[in-house]
Protein: DUF6984 domain-containing protein
Organism: Dyadobacter flavalbus
Amino acid sequence: MNNIRPIRQNEIELIQYLLKLLNLDPENYPFSAEVDEYEGGKMGSISLGGDVSAYDGDLIQVEYVDADGTPVVITLTKDNKGQLLDLDFWKIDFSKLIEYPTPDKIIVKKS
């Protein structure tokens, strides 16, 4: 990893939106002002701090359709201390994310 940079406003807004979908107060889930980009930022995945080996599950998984029509799975994960760990993007064809998702373009699948 080691692609540390300041967190972007659109990332903050997406994280807060996902937490609100879970009826969780974003104030209870702080994260660092700096994030670490996975894969050099190709797909948009970021580490929100903490030990990646302490992964303890997904909080929420939603979908988004990128500007090229390719589906993207977005997952917000937590660590074994209940803190936010990653905001993970998986574009099903492994291509570069073209347009960063906004909350109004998120698709929530009913389980």
About this structure: Strands lie at 4-6, 34-37, 46-47, 55-65, 71-79, 84-91. Residues 9-21 form the longest helix (13 residues). The mean pLDDT is 91.
